[in-house]
Specification:
Layout (H helix, E strand, L loop, with lengths): L2 E8 L3 H12 L2 E5 L2 E5 L2 H15 L8 E8 L20
Antiparallel strand pairs: 1-3, 1-4, 2-3
Length: 92
């Protein structure tokens, strides 16, 4: 089964939020304004968690939050434009 990491965040500071989203874009794709989907591996999860701890945690304000969910792609249901993320596009 293919695993993915879903990262959802609520960061109040525009500068920190922009920096954090650019960081996440190196590893995955944005599926909503503050939600990224990242192909999962132990190495990638470790990198993301370590960078959040080392680089971003000190920048967060008291009301900010970050959630990382590790799930099976097959267990994820999506609607709208996000529903097309897991589909391969073949152009002939």
């Amino acid at each position: 089964m293919s695993k993915v990491i879903i990262v959802a965040y609520d960061i109040s500071n525009n500068k920190v939020r922009t920096k954090f989203s650019k960081f996440l874009a190196q590893y995955g794709v944005r599926v909503q304004f503050s939600v990224f989907e990242i192909e999962n591996s132990k190495r990638v999860l470790d990198i993301v968690c370590n960078k959040v701890e080392e680089r971003f945690k000190k920048l967060f304000e008291p009301g900010d939050s970050i959630y990382l969910f590790v799930t099976d792609r097959e267990s994820t249901i999506s609607y709208g434009s996000a529903s097309q993320l897991g589909n391969d596009l073949i152009i002939i």
